[in-house]
Each structure stands twice: as structure tokens, then as C-alpha cells.
Amino acid sequence: MVRQTGVVQPRVRHGGESGRLTRLFDTTGRLRVEIAYSGGARELRLLDGGRGWRDGDEVAGPARAAMAVQVARLILPTLLGQHAAEVIDGGSVAVAGGTVRLLVLPMGDLFLEAAIDPATGHIVRTTGRIPTGPVTLTFTTELSDLRRVGPLLFPFHEENFAQGSHTATTVVERVELLDRIDPGRFRPAAPAGRQGL
């Protein structure tokens, strides 16, 4: 279980205002992303199993799938190990600055691609592909500034793209490995007067 805090700088949304990021996730695929923007706007995205919420409203389809891609990217080394028999070798591909080895993991109705630096074995880019009828949505994250936290390696710099357009830069300032996260943190708060139902 992991808590990350840092800063996200959107390219378009929220007028380009920076936001304080808190991200909780675990290897079961649960996710909580909170962003408090400098202008006062807030975002809350939650994923728990097959259900997702954005700012308190339940979402499905591409909106839920985009969160599934995000958490899968965050736990990708674990997923590649757990599903090694399903991983497809995409071969070597030339990219700016060298060559990477592609591994593709089918995950139900989406595909996750890991670009691995053959010299280090580190994942340097992830791409999630979500088929939505005639169009496939593509979310890519370039990963850098890799640092160890305990026994694990985490990227502290992320460049995010959707459909090829640069959407945001995320700088992680702190990573904490937690023994436990309250499962309720991955679901919206119960409306007033309904606690305990």
C-alpha cells in the first residue's frame, strides 16, 4: 500500500493552475487520487474493484477505465509478475534516445504496454489502450527520476499524455509505504444521515 504526495501541473484543464496531489493505491487495484488546485477547485477520483467515482458521482465506461489504467500503471511491476504467462512480447522499438523493449499485458477490455530500458530493466514509459467502439483511447506516461523507497523503485517525475497530447506533468515529492489503508478511503463518503447503512 502506497501514499504519494506531490504537485501536478495540468497543461489545459483548470487554466493551467498547479495542484497538490495525494495518491493512495494498493496492489489489489484500488485507487484514490485527490487534487487541490491553487485556484480552489478540487478533484477526487476513486476506484474500488469494478466501481469508480469522480467527485462523488459513480462513473462507468471510459471514465472508469481511465482510472483502471492509472492504477494498473502504478502497480505495473506487480501485474507483470502476477500475469507473466499472459504478457505479450512486443519486441524492440526505437524511441528518442535509444531502444526499448515492449511488453503488452491484456487486462479484460484494455491493454497496458510497458516500455522497458534494456540497459537497466526499468519501466520508462507506460501506455494504456482502451477500445471504445471505433476509437481507441490512449493514455501514455513517461517515467523518470527513479528512486528507491524501501525495497521498491518509484518514478518521481511523470509526463502524462492523452491521445498524443501532453496533458500534465506530475512531480512526486514523497512516497510512503503503508502497512494498511482504511478500505473506506477508496469509496465516496456516505451521505449525511446514512452512515452505518
Mind explaining what this structure looks like?
The structure is a single chain. By secondary structure, the chain is mainly beta. It has a single domain (2-186), classed as Clam (outer membrane lipoprotein receptor (LolB), chain A), CATH 2.50.20. The chain is 11% helix and 56% strand. The protein has helices at residues 61-74, 76-82; strands at residues 2-10, 19-25, 31-37, 42-48, 51-54, 57-59, 88-95, 98-107, 110-116, 123-132, 135-149, 152-162, 165-177. It has a 13-stranded antiparallel sheet, covered by helices on one side. Strand 3 (31-37) and strand 4 (42-48) form a beta hairpin. The longest helix is centred in the middle third of the chain and has 14 residues, at 61-74. The radius of gyration is 17 Å and the shape is globular.
Outline:
By secondary structure, the protein is mainly β. The chain is 11% helix and 56% strand. It has helices at residues 61-74, 76-82, and strands at 2-10, 19-25, 31-37, 42-48, 51-54, 57-59, 88-95, 98-107, 110-116, 123-132, 135-149, 152-162, 165-177.
Offer a few descriptive terms.
197 residues, outer membrane lipoprotein receptor (LolB), chain A, 13-stranded antiparallel beta sheet, 13 strands, disordered C terminus
What is the number of domains?
1
What's the rounded overall pLDDT mean?
Answer: 91
- The SSE string, one letter per element, is EEEEEEHHEEEEEEE
Helix content: 10-25%
Topology, element by element:
Layout: E1 2-10, E2 19-25, E3 31-37, E4 42-48, E5 51-54, E6 57-59, H1 61-74, H2 76-82, E7 88-95, E8 98-107, E9 110-116, E10 123-132, E11 135-149, E12 152-162, E13 165-177
